[in-house]
Amino acid sequence: MARSRTVFSASLVAVIALIALVVGVVGGRATGSASASSGGGAGGAAGGKKVDVIIKASDSSFWQVMLAGAKQAGGDFGINVSTFGPTSETNIDEQVQLVENSISRGVQGIVLAPNSSSALNSAIARARQAGIKVITVDTRVTTPSEGFIGTDNVKAGSQAGSRMCDLLKAQNKTSGAVLVESSVAGIQSLVDRDKGFRQGLAAGCPQVNASLQRFNNNDIGTAASQVNDALTANSNLLGVFADNNTSGVGAARAIKDNNAVGRIPVVAFDSDPQENAALGAGTINALVVQNPYFFGYQGVLAAGMATVGRIPPREIDPGAVVADKSNMNQAEVKSLLEPPTQKAGK
Prior knowledge:
This protein is an alpha/beta fold. The protein has helices at 10-22, 61-77, 92-105, 121-129, 153-170, 188-204, 220-233, 245-257, 273-281, 292-307, 331-337; strands at 50-54, 80-84, 109-112, 133-137, 147-149, 176-182, 208-209, 213-215, 237-242, 266-269, 286-289, 315-316, 321-323. Strands 6, 7, 8, 9, 10, 11 and 13 form a seven-stranded mixed sheet that branches. The protein has a six-stranded parallel sheet with strand order 2-1-3-4-5-12, with helices on both faces. It is elongated, with a radius of gyration of 20 Å.
């Protein structure tokens, strides 16, 4: 199946170069190391600006990768980056409070991966009324912000659906059901992934039904139980699509427990050590891998750009790559599967 051959497109490289230019940073200072402390560079016009980065959940390595990118950008460009996150993606009230805390501290910018498309709207509006520049990441909100950075989840979901179809065709299975194992209902990024998955699956496998769906409230044990129940109750179940890393780990556990490796393909989103291990073991057949490191790095750059009166790009999509056993050790894919991480508040 065709996949992107580069993590950064030429247009994204141009965007990064432009941002570096307008904030007055001396070229050649960016590195691939994640060890630089935030605010360590001399910077330019944005040097010394305070930017808070608020992720969806501190218990997820996916978001810890985003924090690593944010910290690196802070070190590279002299921006003072502080990082925060609620314990779980279901803790929306806690995330709202974190935004309120940032407003109280008087930061100049916030990079926010919102846990809801609407529940953060009032807090975001208050931040912007206070003159704080807000860049949203991963999940779109229905209130204005200075910019958005995230994967086109419909397109990436379609990649997952197309890969599932290929896996089913390889088993000569073209009629039956696929379970959509989802994390949380109503999250727009997940809604888009599920929509794209069904579109990609239907394009090549129109007789496969993907209407069966379960929500696990971002809990691995619940996801495993739901996939186990689906395997038991549906004799015509052909495969499982897991739309985030928690769902993927749970699905892989159920596949292993039911001795269904090689029989029930699993296509999942994102990556973490457990998902990567499942990919190597065959309990997950393919991972649609995003670039959360880029979310954090580019988010801080865009926020810094906005704090000095420049206009950051309205939208940036770094794209997604489909990883499987055949390519997971290739350098460009491995760098996405095994990126640096950083815990909130560190």
